[in-house]
């Protein structure tokens, strides 16, 4: 889980660096605002994942039915959000005005989401196996 978060942060760092000068047209301004919003959501997501990991650690020490249900529900919500983001990324990747750097960022974000979803599903299965 820590590796995924570190990878996600590294991807975020790559996304923020661009060698091109800023153009001042509406599409680039929209892209800039979109990237700012994505960065905010990634930070919130990272904090949520840290909190979820703390909950799982606490659950392993003292398992309760309520905690198990809450953790599984949170994981299902995160997985659903990743699925929703995947659709947005697919639509953005179809744009013809993307440069190679933007395409790379979108592909990395999509791959990161796929990895995160896979790991969350594994963790969810592990949590479900713990007897209460």
Structure, explained:
The protein is mostly helical and 132 residues long. The protein has one domain: Up-down Bundle (Methane Monooxygenase Hydroxylase, Chain G, domain 1), CATH 1.20.58. Helices cover 83% and strands 0% of the residues. It is built from four helices and no strands. Helix 3 packs antiparallel against helix 4. The longest helix has 36 residues. The radius of gyration is 17 Å and the shape is elongated. The two termini are 23 Å apart. The model has no long low-confidence stretch (mean pLDDT 81). GO terms for molecular function: protein homodimerization activity. Belongs to the mite group 5 allergen family. This is Mite allergen Der p 5.
Topology:
Blueprint (H helix, E strand, L loop, with lengths): L1 H15 L9 H36 L3 H29 L6 H30 L3
Helix pairs in contact: 1-2, 1-4, 2-3, 3-4
Key traits:
4 helices, single chain, mainly alpha, 132 residues, 83% helix, Methane Monooxygenase Hydroxylase, Chain G, domain 1, Mite allergen Der p 5
Give the low-pLDDT segments.
none
Instruction: Give the domain tally.
Output: 1
Radius of gyration: 17 Å
Number of strands: 0
Task: Estimate the mean pLDDT confidence.
Answer: 81
Shape: elongated
Family: Belongs to the mite group 5 allergen family.
Keywords: Allergen
Pfam family, one: Blo-t-5
Protein name: Mite allergen Der p 5
At a glance:
With 132 residues, the chain is mainly alpha-helical. It has helices at residues 2-16, 26-61, 65-93, 100-129. The mean pLDDT is 81.
């Amino acid at each position: 889980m820590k590796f995924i978060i570190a990878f996600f942060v590294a991807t975020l760092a790559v996304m923020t660096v661009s060698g091109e000068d800023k153009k001042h047209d509406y599409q680039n301004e929209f892209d800039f605002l979109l990237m700012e919003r994505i960065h905010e959501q990634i930070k919130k997501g990272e904090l949520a994942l840290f909190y979820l990991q703390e909950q799982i650690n606490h659950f392993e020490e003292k398992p309760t039915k309520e905690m198990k249900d809450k953790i599984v529900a949170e994981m299902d919500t995160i997985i659903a959000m990743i699925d929703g983001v995947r659709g947005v990324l697919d639509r953005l990747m179809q744009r013809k005005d993307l440069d190679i750097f933007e395409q790379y960022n979108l592909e990395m974000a999509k791959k990161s989401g796929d990895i995160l979803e896979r790991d969350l599903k594994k963790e969810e299965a592990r949590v479900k196996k713990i007897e209460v």
